[in-house]
Here is the input.
Amino acid sequence: MTKIVSPQVEFGGLLSQMKSITPEVFTQDGKFLNLMEGRWQEPGKPRPFTSPVDGSDIGSLPMLDHDTAVRAVQFAKQEAAAWAAVDLDERKRRVQDCLNQLRDQVDLVGKLLIWEIGKTYKLGFTDIDRAIEGVQWYVDNIEGMLGQREPLGLVSNIASWNYPMSVLLHAVLVQALCGNSVIAKTPTDGGFISLSLTFAIARRCGLPVTLVSGSGGELSDVLVKNEAVDCLSFVGGRYNGRNIADALGSVHKRYMLEMEGVNTYGIWNYSDWDGLADQLKKGYDYGKQRCTAYVRFVVERRLFPQFVETYWNTIKGLKVGNPTLVDSADDKLPDLAFGPVINKAQAEDLDRLYENALKTGATPIFEGKLDDSLFLPGQDRSAYRAPRALVNLPRQSELYFKEPFGPIDSIVLVDRVEELVGEMNISNGALVGALASDDEKWAARTAKEVRAFKMGINKLRSRGDREEVFGGLGESWKGAFVGGALLVEAVTEGEKSILGNFEDATRLPEKI
Here is the structure.
């Protein structure tokens, strides 16, 4: 039986819903607008956007030029003083109003994220739900965290496409709650449609938020270096992050730069293979397109037979396919491990990294295949890649020092604990790491030698929510740490010193 696109997620219907809820986001002929100077305007130079799900055209990014972006930044800065003077109770009321209205749109946002960035419905729903409930925690607890601290002014946000709600929208609403005006750039690889919906609701609720689209070349300098910007929150690659850190170091403005690193999972003196299987399956959420994905396994050599058996049996059962397809109109959406990667270009770069690894001497131990039954006949599959894994990755391979940001795992075999630690520290800093061992005391002691901000013992560690702090060590993070009270402190000024990874020192919280 040929599958069909589920009527509940048919894109034309979702877009019609959005137009009825937030008509101000569109021109009369249906083009998307930017939110700047307090209203939706400026279609810019529309750039067609195709869905990774099937290559279909789902809209056009309203790309702004440099001068128009300057206007947006300057107006956003002008809103800062008046908003900072608004009583905290009123700021809480407006953010709460925004959250209440966003709750009515969770289903729509989750379904839009399927088409925009290839998430399964479950992961799209989780992204917006985590954003709302996370900000709710700040609304409920802001007084104790804010105290006498004062807002910085205008906070600029440049974030990657993979978590537009639980990372970008969440940060924006907390920044506004703390008394800052806020400007954000839509990720050019996806998320601008759902972000437009949520920012329209925020603006209606009286929050001083601005949302603009544009290329990095046109907008980055404006959103980073412009003197109107008092603080920058950045989530993205290490190359761009380093350049931004260099640029900001000379102007002494506040910043939080979350960058990539090779997150590693070390396995030593271990026997709970069923437990590891559960972690391997969970670790493939969203095709490992996460800053906290574990992409390198460092395994004690004598355990390799058990590891590879567990890995093979687990990963071969993962379903990868079109997340919109069902057998009949009334069926639930499919329960997939993941759908496409973000776009064809990323899929081809994964192929390049994999082929380079093979040419330099790596040995493939798993090459998954796509199941034809999980796609429409003849549909565009250019953004889909099944899981792959390599062992004996040589140091001359590009993948050895790089996070692939997709479904490619590498396995490194070691004979001594010193080798284990050295291989786990290969990227000079990471956001998360984990050690699996039957000897938990040994694992806890050895974990202190791994340069990861968060370490799991016999479990994965994630970014965390609400009161849980988040940051990175080494080259994976620059500037102030965030999460819990640290996010409030990062976007405000007060007597307490800011914790973070700075040029002159790394100041860590007591408990991570």
Remarks:
- The longest strand covers residues 57-63.
- The mean pLDDT is 95.
- DSSP finds 15 helices and 23 strands in the chain.
